[in-house]
Design goal:
alpha/beta, Maf protein, about 30% strand
Length: about 180
């Protein structure tokens, strides 16, 4: 019997990622009936993912995530927790003339059931470079249009599914953790 699990996000790209995490499990990923505004006020990605999962878990299981782009050369000038709110324009302003263009993706995933967090993980490891300017107009998930993988000579948005599996250690680790959690339970 497949259990329903709410994909706790209003972002279609994020819902696709959450659905991918759950592939092959005895779960039935469902879209939220209505987007719920969840303030991202935690001091870390895990706290924000947990807040989203909790908000959507009143009727059963919910899965949520929160991610951010880490730009080491910008140190505290760029906050990975604000990637979505600062956006491409904010990063462009800060990264103008930046010599060290290394970036890394960090992501947290949380599972809640009936208003309680039952599991949470954070992973960070997908590494690349900020693409050279000019950057394209932002898409639904603008980071993938500027995240460049030198080993493949491609932006994230141009990668095949196999190439994504090869370079995206962050989401691969999260998938491993989520799959192990549900298979053990």
């Amino acid at each position: 019997m497949r259990r329903p699990i709410v994909l706790a996000s209003s972002n279609p790209t994020k819902r696709r990622q959450l659905r991918w995490l759950l592939e092959g499990l005895p779960l039935d990923p469902v879209e939220p009936t209505a987007p719920l505004g969840v303030p991202e006020t935690s001091s870390n990605l895990t706290g924000n993912a947990a807040a989203k999962a909790l908000t959507y878990s009143g009727g059963g299981l919910a899965v949520a995530s929160d991610g951010g782009l880490v730009v080491p050369a910008l140190a505290v000038a760029w906050d990975p927790l604000l990637t979505g709110r600062e956006g491409q324009a904010g990063l462009r302003r800060l990264a103008a003339g930046l010599a060290d263009r290394r970036v890394r993706w960090s992501e947290a995933v949380a599972i809640a059931e009936g208003g309680h967090i039952v599991a949470a993980w954070t992973a960070s490891g997908t590494e690349g470079l900020l693409a050279p300017e000019p950057w394209p107009e932002p898409s639904d998930f603008w980071v993938w249009d500027i995240f460049y993988f030198p080993s493949l000579g491609k932006l994230w948005s141009a990668l095949t599914e196999n190439e994504r599996t090869e370079v995206d250690s962050t989401w691969m680790e999260l998938k491993r953790q989520v799959q192990a959690y549900f298979r053990a339970g």
